[in-house]
Design a protein that fits this description.
Number of strands: 6
Helix content: 40-55%
Bound molecules: flavin mononucleotide
Structural class: alpha/beta
Shape: globular
Number of helices: 6
Largest sheet: 6 strands, parallel
Radius of gyration: 17 Å
Distance between the termini: 38 Å
Length: 186
């Protein structure tokens, strides 16, 4: 009998997973932070923020990549290959003050843009939860979530949301389903 009870407890803990963590944190302090080059991740961030509340900030480079697509491709690939994490403008808020960080970015070269790497390495995410969401052109999440985990080994990462470009008409319902899945629907 004890064995069955123990097994049921383990199953329950496994099933609740990260959503159980949200349940413990009754009123988590929420930050929605995003990097966006052409506006899609910004749009998704705004929709998520409208639903979950908290604060919304943009991750901005001191010297932004070119607005010309091909030049941006070259610049971002150069930084990726050289392992350059470009300098960011000072964030309008301190990540230390939040429990949950919704982190948005486009898939670039099948991974996170290097400015997002700068953001991750410049903040202490210990004890926090990162909820990743991204915009992509066909490659979905690529290696982005493992890149986040590598840069922040102590962080808890939820199931990620991946949206094709701006998401179209299903964006709202896709976000709602995801928020429910990770236990953050209000
Ligand atoms: C430098 C660069 C690299 C990209 N690499 C990829 C990629 O590897 N896989 C993919 O699916 N889309 C890739 N894309 C397309 C973007 O992920 C897509 O356009 C996304 O919607 C852009 O989001 P944003 O508007 O927030 O910048 C790339 C775009 C750029 C500018």
């Amino acid at each position: 009998m004890m064995k069955i009870k123990t097994m049921m407890c383990i199953m329950l803990l496994t099933l609740t997973g990260i959503s159980g963590l949200f349940a413990q944190e009754r009123d988590p302090r929420i930050l929605v932070a995003y990097f966006s080059w052409s506006g899609n991740s910004r749009l998704i961030a705004a929709e998520i923020h409208r639903r979950v509340g908290g604060d919304l900030v943009e991750i901005e480079m001191v010297t932004p990549y070119s607005r010309t697509y091909n030049t941006c491709l070259d610049q971002s690939l150069r930084d990726l290959r050289a392992g350059i994490h470009p300098s960011l403008k000072t964030l309008e808020t301190d990540v230390a003050g939040y429990d949950v960080v919704f982190l948005g970015y486009p898939t670039w070269w099948a991974t996170i843009p290097m400015p997002v790497a700068t953001f991750l390495e410049s903040c202490d995410f210990t004890g926090k939860i990162i909820a990743p969401f991204n915009s992509h052109g066909g490659g979905r999440l690529g290696q982005t979530v493992s890149a986040i985990a590598k840069l922040c080994p102590s962080v808890k990462i939820t199931q990620a949301l991946s949206i094709h470009y701006g998401g179209g008409r299903t964006l709202g319902s896709d976000i709602d389903a995801w928020l429910t899945e990770i236990g953050m629907a209000r």
